[in-house]
Amino acid sequence: MADITVGTWNFDPTHTEIGFTVRHIMSKVRGTFEKFEAQIVTQPDITTSTATATIDLSSVNTGTADRDAHLRSSDFFSVESHPSMTFTSTSVLQKSDTAFVLVGDLTIKDVTKPVELAVEFLGEGKDPWGGTRVGVEATTSISRKDFGIDFNIPLEGDKVMIGDKISILITGEAVLAQ
What we know:
Elements: E1 7-11, E2 17-24, E3 27-33, E4 36-42, E5 50-56, E6 60-61, H1 65-72, E7 84-94, E8 99-108, E9 111-126, E10 132-143, E11 154-155, E12 159-160, E13 162-176
Antiparallel strand pairs: 1-4, 1-13, 2-3, 2-13, 3-6, 4-5, 5-7, 7-8, 8-9, 9-10, 10-13, 11-12
């Protein structure tokens, strides 16, 4: 079993990245969400631990201002009426000392679907400021259409401009609450 201190862990936004990748014509576009709050509450039985996250959809950043504005629009996230997406875990499955599956509910635009994140525990240790940190990396993929995000532009040969599959990669450090 992974050696994780029991307690409440808050993700450090300066050392955490919530990123995504989506197919665009013949390439891929990558982006991140710059504003979020996320927390893990670990228990003596790691499989009863919980995780939550709230992500500010207006903080999407793909490196292109026009594309980011389009993502915030009603074609995609509709941030005026749906400002955030949320994740709430429902169970934790332990695969090894450092590998877990975090099962939970992801809500985007008032649509909630179950997702499974493959989580790698990267370790726990003290930081230079007297705190205790853990590192994790989590991956999953979702169908954007499952969440009512189905804007697209048809292309020649039965192709579309934007892929349906969204790959998500979360790398982060969380700090034990004092």
